[in-house]
Amino acid sequence: MSQRVRLALCIASLVVLFGLAITTARLWAHESLWQVISLCVFMFLWFVVAEVRRRRRKRAGLLPPQ
Known about the structure:
Strand content: under 5%
Number of strands: 0
Number of helices: 2
Distance between the termini: 7 Å
Structural class: mainly alpha
Order of helices and strands: HH
Radius of gyration: 15 Å
Number of domains: 1
Helix content: over 70%
């Protein structure tokens, strides 16, 4: 899978998760919007860290070429 496709899928999944989080928060009315936004930021950072770690392992030769 190319880097652009992977990035597009990551961004699309984050947009969907952000929308679901806002919808869920509004339906339950227990979470504030700031908590939802902070959750989405945390998930985005999680994806970034995972991608950076994957690239480092690939560069070090620990992952097979795709």
